[in-house]
Every structure is written in C-alpha cells, then in structure tokens.
C-alpha cells in the first residue's frame, strides 16, 4: 500500500531511446511492450484501472514466469542510451506484450499516464483511439469509477459530436482503429454528426467559390495584410460573412483528409439526409481537386510539397473519379460557372484515365443540363483517342448538346418555360447555347480533318429558335470553306444550306455578296434577300419620317397647317361676334355645325394628299424591284463570268460599295423578318 501511495503522489515520465520510464522514486516491476516501444511501469496503478492488465499480471504471477528473461542493468544500458538512474533498474519480474494495440504506443502512453492519475489532454484527434484503448484494456466503470471508457464517451458525446470540424477529425482518427471503432459505433456516430451538422449549416457558407490550391494559399496569406475583397467590392459590414466563408473552407480542408472509403460513406450519408445538392457538389469538387491533378486548368502544376503526398496512382485516380461522378447531384447547379468548368475538367480527366462509358455518359448528361453556363474554352475538349482524326472531340460536344436539347424538351413538356415559347418569347438558355455552338463551329471549322458531314450535322442540330440571326453561322461556314477549298460544289452548297439567308443582317449580306468562296446559287439568294432587307429598311425609314419633326415639309402637313390657321381665324371672328352680341344663344349651334363641317373637309383633304404621296412611293419601289429581277434573271442566264465581272456590273448598276464587315449574330440591329426556316436540313 505504501508503494501505491508513493507511486500516485507526483509521477513523472522520461523517454530514453525506445524505452519509456515512469520516474516515481520506486523501481519498476513490469515492462509492457507496444509496437517498438517498451514501457517500464508499476503493477498497482495499471491493475487498479484495467481489468485485462490485472488478469495478465495475475496469470504471470500465478505461473511464476515472465515472457522474457529478466534484464540486468548492463543489458538495459546496451539497449538504451547508457544513462539510466539506479532506482529505475531492477530485475524485471513481469513482461507483457500487447499486440495490435489501438492507436499504437502513443495512445498507450496516454493510457499509462491516466492510470497514474496524471491529467491527460483529450481532444478530437485522440478521443477515438483512447476510447478503443479503454475497450481493449477493459477499463470500464464497473471495474473502477471514473474510468477511461466513461471519460472518453462523455467527451465524445458532449463535445466532439456537437462540432462539425471535430467530428471530421475524430472520423479521420478512426481509419487506423478499424474494425474496433466500427464495432463500438464511433465511425457511424461521427458520420451521422457530420451529415446532420452540414445540413443545418448556413447555406451562405457554400456560396463562396472553391479556390484552386495555389490561389487559395495566396489568398489566405494575404487576408491578414489587406482588406478582404469580393468581386472587387469592399464588403465592409460583410466581413463577418467572409469569416464564415473561411470557416467553410476550413471545413472542406478537414474533410478532404479522409480516405476514399470514409469519404464515400460520408457522401452517402449526406445524400440520405436530403442535404442541399450544392453542398454535396462542393464537397465533391474540393475532394477531387485535392487528389486528381490537372483537373483545373489554373492548377495544372501542383506544388512540390503537396505533389508527393496527394498524388495517387492511375487506378486510384480512376476509382476516385468514378466515385465523384457517380455521386454528383442530378439537379442543375445553382453555383457560378465555376461548377460547369469543374465538370468539363472532370470530363477531360475521364477521357485521359479511360473511365467507363457509363461514367462519361453520366457526366455528359450532367453537363448538358447546364450547358448555357459553359464557355467556348470549356467546349474545346481535345481528342485523346487515336480513332478520332479531328483535333477536338466533336462527338462529345454533339452528345452534350443532344442532352441539353432533350432536357429542354422535357421541361417544355412539363410546362416549364412553355408559355413563353408559345407566346413567341425565345428561351434565354437556348439562345446562349446557340451563340456558344456558333462560336464552337467557327473554332473547329479550320480543322482540315473535319468532314463536311460532321460540320453539317452539328450546325443543323439546333432548332430555329436558337438563333435570332445567322451571322455567327455564316462566319463558321466562311471559315470552313476557306480551310477546305478542295470539297466539291455539291458539298459547298450543302454546307451553305445550313444558313437561313433571311436571317442574315445587312452587314452579313454585303459581305456574302462579294464572297468568292460561296457558290453562285448562294450568292444569288443573298442578293435577293438583301434587296428585301433594303426594301423593309427603306419602308421603315419613310414611315418613321412621317412622324418625325422633320416631316413638316410634306404637302399634306403644309395643307393641314393652312387649314388650321384659317379655322383659327374664323373661330376668332365668331368669338368677336359673340362678344359684341352677348346674351344671344342662337349663334352657338350654328358655330358648332360650321366647325364640324370645316374639320371634316380638312381631314379629307389631308388624306387625299397622303394617298397621292404613298402611291408615288409605291410606284418607285415597284420599278426598283422590277429592275432587280431583270438583273438577277440576266445573271442566271449568262452564268458566272470570270474575274468577278458580274459582281462589278452589280456594283456599277446599283451604285454601292460592298463592305467586308460581319456583325454579331445576336445583335438586335435588324428586325427578324421570318419566324421559321424554309430550307431543308436533311441530306
């Protein structure tokens, strides 16, 4: 009993090489080996807290033999550093080896301190190993009051599981404690806590962008030196919100330290609790950017410090990639284009790693649901297969576009945005995709290996409502004809058939009229519709001039003014007579009748002048149209003369110079004159 009291007074410890000593002034009487570390301890403190150690020590004392021969002072000096206190050395009576101890020697050192009554520091990183160690050593409340199991369970439930980050750290520590941690339910409780805490978190935390590695580190180091700016605006009162955003980023940083099996388990739990798709998507994005190199174009070269620790093998990257893609929410992301750019990065990586067809198909469908948020740079996916002759993967873009159109049709059938289209309002998403595809066609048109059939099929895949004007499509056709001068005349006419000439602006028409690369039939149609555009423009100008302030020179307006002046003079005379003969009420009906008659005569005269002037303008336009038809007929009969002679004759006849400017197909500078397309889209 005296030895026990002395051992419990003020114990201290020291480590010498691979040996750990408890310096209490009493010689140690037991050695416990855990992994490569030996602990020179005393029996009584251990036996008072651990039922298992009590049984092992009692068993050895009963048998009267230890596991290893007693060590002398000289042997310990040879194994240690040679500088050992005399009161710590004696012939060892008991030697115990604990194999597969939860948490290893570091955890057992904490357990030994607890047995000696030393105050230990329990935190989110060691509570799970200590809980498993207590279970391993049978340190229950029934055996000893306020024992290790009850202490760790209380800290786990009252502190760790009530914090999001602490729960993640505890779950991370369970990776080396399996399967005991699973048997004790620690892993499941941590997973459930993370899922519930994430679902109750402020959604504003996840509206902040997921930073790329180098940029994130730089941003973190600079926030302490300068004010936090968001989109170039000083948030001022939103600094508290910025702090919450940093906390969310720390949340993600803790989460990405989990192993893939634990991360998959956590994502499954999040999806089971109906967590916001944006939060799940943010978790997947952060985890993928951590372990899949090159997924972001701005972070293609990871830092040397993190490359060796985070870069996984090709098979591990493929497994991780398929896990990320299979768990992506099917809903359209409400985030900025950052999410769409990330999805395209996943698609490029899936092509490089040769992921499964089902994996790539699911990713293409996800991208198709939000294609309007993509950029031209996103669509330029290199072709990694030797079967594709083109520089870019055109087939992949066709599949993504098909998924977008299918989703748009499903939404229209479900009544979403359907009323707008019935009222003639174009879908904004469809218009954005139309402009995006026109830009993509212009970019890939210069590829010499792009077949006319593939260019044609992609160009006609969009409905008529996707393009307000066909100027962008004309630009792509012009680039393709310039890069493929060897194609036949039939193929050139087929390529030009993707355009609706009535949807070309005047600028595009003037450029096409002098474009030597276009077939003659296409040029003739351009000229014809250009004249229609001019007629509409002239008519609109004349109608606008009638209501403008400068229209005062028209005869009808002058006549109206003269009649108004005469009427005002007559009304003034009537007023004078009424003033001279005040009180005579008989003149009032006669004045009203006279005024009504004069107004009717005046309006008839104005209408007659307007009809005469309109008839004159109509005759002039008809003569111009007749002259234009004769010229077109003459061109068709004579055929295409060499050296551009017929183009010069048109320039001389109509007295105009063609410009080479092509405007944007989505600028609303000209009124759309036709709602449907009448040319054929079939081969």
UniProtKB/TrEMBL annotation:
Polar residues composition-biased segments: 60-73
Domain of life: Eukaryota
Pathway assignment: Protein modification; protein ubiquitination
Entry keyword Coiled coil: yes
Pfam families in UniProt: NPH3 (PF03000)
Domain NPH3 as annotated: residue spans: 249-533
Keywords: Coiled coil, Ubl conjugation pathway
Family of this protein: Belongs to the NPH3 family.
BTB domain location: 28-124
InterPro entries tied to this protein: BTB/POZ_dom, NPH3/RPT2-like, NPH3_dom, SKP1/BTB/POZ_sf
Biased composition (Acidic residues): 568-578
SMART domains: BTB
Protein name: NPH3 domain-containing protein
Entry coiled-coil feature ranges: 604-638
Region (Disordered): 60-84, 568-587
Example GO biological process: protein ubiquitination
């Amino acid at each position: 009993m005296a030895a026990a009291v002395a051992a419990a007074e003020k114990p201290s410890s020291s480590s010498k090489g691979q040996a750990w000593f408890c310096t209490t002034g009493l010689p140690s009487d037991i050695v416990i080996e855990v992994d490569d570390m030996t602990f020179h301890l005393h029996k009584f403190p251990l036996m008072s807290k651990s039922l298992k150690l009590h049984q092992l020590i009692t068993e050895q004392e009963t048998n009267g033999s230890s596991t290893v021969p007693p060590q002398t002072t000289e042997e310990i000096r040879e194994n240690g550093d040679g500088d050992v206190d005399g009161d710590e050395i004696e012939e060892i009576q008991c030697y115990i080896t604990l194999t597969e101890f939860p948490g290893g020697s570091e955890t057992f050192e904490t357990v030994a301190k607890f047995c000696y009554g030393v105050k230990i520091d329990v935190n989110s990183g060691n509570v799970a190993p200590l809980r498993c160690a207590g279970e391993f050593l049978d340190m229950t409340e029934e055996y000893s009051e306020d024992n290790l199991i009850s202490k760790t369970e209380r800290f786990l439930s009252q502190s760790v599981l009530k914090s999001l980050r602490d729960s993640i750290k505890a779950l991370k520590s369970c990776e080396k404690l399996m399967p005991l941690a699973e048997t004790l339910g620690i892993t499941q409780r941590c997973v459930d806590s993370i899922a519930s805490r994430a679902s109750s978190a402020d959604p504003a935390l996840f509206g902040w962008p997921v930073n790329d590695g180098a940029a994130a580190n730089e941003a973190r180091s600079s926030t302490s030196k300068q004010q936090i700016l968001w989109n170039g605006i000083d948030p001022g009162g939103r600094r508290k919100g910025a702090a919450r955003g940093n906390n969310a980023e720390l949340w993600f940083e803790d989460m990405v330290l989990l192993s893939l099996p634990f991360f998959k388990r956590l994502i499954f739990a999040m999806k089971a609790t109906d967590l916001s798709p944006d939060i799940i998507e943010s978790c997947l994005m952060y985890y993928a950017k951590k372990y899949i190199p090159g997924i972001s174009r701005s972070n293609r070269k990871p830092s040397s410090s993190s490359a060796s620790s985070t870069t996984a093998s090709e098979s591990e990257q493929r497994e991780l990639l398929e896990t990320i893609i299979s768990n992506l929410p099917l809903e359209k992301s409400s985030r900025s284009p950052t999410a769409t750019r990330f999805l395209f990065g996943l698609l490029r990586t899936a092509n490089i790693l040769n992921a499964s067809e089902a994996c790539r198909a699911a990713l293409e469908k996800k991208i198709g649901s939000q294609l309007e948020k993509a950029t031209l740079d996103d669509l330029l996916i290199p072709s990694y297969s030797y079967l594709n002759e083109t520089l870019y993967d055109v087939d992949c873009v066709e599949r993504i576009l098909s998924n977008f159109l299918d989703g748009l049709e499903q939404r229209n059938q479900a009544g979403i945005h359907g009323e707008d289209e019935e009222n003639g309002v174009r879908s904004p998403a469809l218009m954005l995709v139309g402009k995006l595809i026109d830009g993509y066609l212009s970019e890939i048109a210069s590829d010499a290996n792009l077949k006319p059939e593939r260019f044609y099929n992609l160009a006609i895949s969009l409905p008529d409502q996707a393009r307000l004007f066909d100027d962008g499509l004309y630009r792509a056709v012009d680039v393709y004809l310039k890069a493929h001068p060897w194609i036949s005349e039939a193929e050139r006419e087929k390529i030009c058939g993707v355009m609706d000439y009535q949807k070309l602006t005047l600028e595009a028409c003037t450029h096409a009229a002098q474009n030597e690369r276009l077939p003659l039939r296409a040029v003739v149609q351009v000229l014809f519709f250009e004249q229609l555009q001019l007629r509409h423009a002239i008519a609109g100008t004349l109608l606008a001039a009638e209501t403008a302030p400068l229209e005062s020179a028209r005869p009808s307006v002058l006549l109206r003014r003269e009649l108004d002046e005469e009427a005002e003079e007559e009304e003034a005379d009537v007023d004078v007579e009424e003033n001279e003969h005040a009180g005579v009420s008989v003149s009032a009906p006669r004045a009203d009748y006279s005024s009504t008659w004069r107004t009717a005569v005046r309006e008839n005269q104005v209408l007659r002048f307007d009809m005469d002037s309109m008839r004159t303008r109509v005759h002039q336009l008809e003569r111009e149209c007749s002259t234009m038809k004769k010229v077109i007929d003459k061109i068709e009969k004579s055929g295409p003369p060499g050296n551009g002679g017929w183009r010069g004759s048109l320039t001389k006849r109509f007295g105009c110079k063609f410009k080479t400017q092509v405007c944007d197909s989505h600028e609303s500078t000209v009124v759309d004159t036709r709602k449907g397309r009448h040319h054929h889209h079939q081969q």
